[in-house]
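Q: I'm writing a short methods note and want an example of a predicted protein-small molecule complex. Could you take the sequence and the SMILES for adenosine-5'-triphosphate and return the bound structure as tokens? Please keep the output block clean; save any remarks for afterwards.
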Amino acid sequence: MYKGFFKLKENPFNVNPDPRYLYLTKEIEEALTGLMYGIQTRKGFITLTGEVGTGKTTLVNRLLDWLHGKGARTAFLFNSRMNSSQLFDFILAEFEIPCESKSKSQQLMKLNQWLLDRYRSGETVVLIIDEAQNLTYPVMEEIRLLTNLETSTDKLLQIVLSGQPELEDKLRLPQLRQLRQRIMLRCRTAPFSKEQTHEYIAERLRIAGADSQPIFSKEAMDAVYLYSLGIPRVVNLLCEHSLVNAYVEQQRPILKKIVEDVAHEFQLDEVDPVNPASNVSVDVFNSESFVQNLGEALSRFRMEPPGTPTRRR
Ligand SMILES: Nc1ncnc2c1ncn2[C@@H]1O[C@H](COP(=O)(O)OP(=O)(O)OP(=O)(O)O)[C@@H](O)[C@H]1O
Ligand SMILES: [Mg+2]
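A: Understood, no commentary inside the block.
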């Protein structure tokens, strides 16, 4: 509804992880390059971790676009609440490997044969599991078995596990040490700095068709950083609602007060005050008050879990 008022072609702060809107910070570029390098050099097993809402799924979508451009075969599982037998069913279905049998050993043999064929024809095969912090130990154990599919020189299947920091905690547990030892590369996403938050807002507005006249005042963007701590999903939430409220008040550029009111509405102002000029410690994101306040707000903006556990890409 505000698009006409702000002369925008589309909604700039959509919560979908749309790779068109990917804003590359040095950190994100490093993570993306790491993922591409790890896959190209057949490292076998890579993790991508980062705080909730910091762009893991967005990055994975960009990675998938790149992989498809290269003709790689991919399976993307984004509902990690599955048991071991479902894991194999999903993988075979995603790669379109026909297999009548439901027996795990038969399925593994079929997969191995198919992977060898792909390897011989020079194709890269990648399995990406998002939200991997939810995987159970038995499923993690199966993933370890998958990392054993190899020739004498190369891994046949490249596996990327993407998830929140709990994934790293899980992988530190003694019962998962065998899997942990197989991680060849660890990539990370991180919240934006204040400058990056400003650039991110400007970049999304630009992609959505904004002209050169400012939409957010500098003070308003400072406030967005203060209340979001640079977490892109929260930045989107604050900006989207600020656009709506500013439209109602016919205000352009948007002033700080509008952002403060939105932050208050979503109880983001109950987080311990942070000096916006200082470097925010990672501990802040783990503090109970921060997580509690954000949890509520974020849950309204999480994407609904899809009906089916896999999505064909
Ligand atoms: N680098 C980025 N460039 C553009 N948009 C981003 C970026 N990082 C995050 N976003 C936006 O922030 C929102 C959250 O991103 P995303 O869903 O990728 O986070 P996530 O780390 O996967 O979160 P979760 O831990 O809840 O799975 C999305 O709306 C996405 O568009
Ligand atoms: Mg995600």
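A: Remarks, as requested: The chain is about 50% helix and 10% strand. The domain at 26-188 is CATH 3.40.50.300 (Rossmann fold).
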